[in-house]
Design brief:
Number of strands: 8
Low-confidence stretches: 1-51, 153-158, 282-289
Shape: globular
Order of helices and strands: EEEHHEHEEEEHHHHHHH
Oligomer: single chain
Mean pLDDT: 75
Length: 289
């Protein structure tokens, strides 16, 4: 489905515990009907205390620089953006320094990118966020994802959490695809934002989670364990749902590095639980070897 990377990520176990309380999974889907996992009525709402996002244009941007045309996807959908805004991405900055000094067309071709994803990347470059945005809940003093039908927050409707990937032939989590796009374009702040927003999603199908996890493994470098650890923590956290999932069984039969990482993460989790129950735990915490 995707080009796979061959080297094993050795640092994911440092991160997977941090995501346990933020994520929820959906139930397995049958071939006849998809059913979402309904959380208990007392479950925590999809909120997270976060730093206030900056919706202003990038620092130093005057919006008076030349316009660049970006041709995206196999259907060559056209986007336009200011050169100095694009240059906040190391990927586009390199293109601007190289190609555009020798041509007057100022056109970039991205045939393998999805228009839905690149549109959100541009929105982030101009506004510091992408739809659905993080909005402030004053009563709880927390930040949450805006509601699609909330006109007071400028909701546009149809705030889909997934995007259909034609090469995969199935839907994937939009935030995961944005994280991987941000990695390609050298936008570390967008990576952090996408990961934070994905942690606020709920009611996602098991099949979508597993397909998105494979996409994450295929499209992130081995030294970037944050997104991979997010999925490992989610599967362990929602293990009662995943162990009943036929999709999980089929994915495990396919194999791959993700399931070895999952095995290591589960072993580490069990070791931590055993250490916490040990009488010696309060006297001498377990130290890494």
């Amino acid at each position: 489905m995707f080009a796979r990377r061959t080297h094993h990520n050795e640092s994911f176990s440092k991160h997977y515990n941090t995501s346990f309380d933020k994520h929820r999974a959906g139930k397995a889907t049958s071939s006849k009907q998809k059913r979402s996992f309904r959380e208990a009525a007392t479950a925590v709402k999809k909120v997270e205390r976060v730093k206030k996002p900056d919706h202003s244009p990038p620092a130093g941007s005057t919006l008076t620089s030349p316009i660049v045309t970006i041709c995206v996807g196999p259907e060559q959908r056209l986007f336009a953006a200011h050169e100095d805004v694009l240059s906040h991405s190391t990927f586009f900055a390199a293109i601007c320094r190289g190609q555009f000094l020798e041509t007057a067309t100022k056109r970039v071709n991205l045939p393998e990118e999805l228009p839905e994803i690149f549109s959100s990347v541009l929105e982030y470059l101009y506004k510091g966020d992408y739809y659905p945005r993080l909005v402030h809940n004053k009563r709880r003093n927390t930040w949450e994802l805006e509601e699609a039908d909330n006109s007071n927050n400028g909701g546009r409707g149809n705030a889909e959490s997934t995007v259909h990937h034609p090469d995969a032939g199935q839907v994937l989590l939009k935030d995961t695809m944005l994280y991987c796009a941000a990695d390609r374009y050298g936008l570390d702040d967008l990576k952090r934002l996408a990961l934070r927003k994905q942690g606020l999603q709920s009611g996602i199908q098991c099949s979508t989670i597993l397909a998105s996890a494979r996409y994450a493994y295929a499209n992130t470098p081995d030294n970037d364990s944050r997104l991979r650890a997010h999925y490992l923590a989610l599967i362990i956290r929602s293990r009662s749902t995943f162990k009943r999932s036929g999709t999980m069984q089929m994915e495990m039969e396919k194999g791959g590095m993700m399931f070895f990482d999952l095995f290591v993460a589960i072993c580490n989790h069990m070791d931590d639980m055993a250490a916490a129950k040990s009488p010696l735990f309060t006297k001498s915490p377990r130290t890494p070897h």
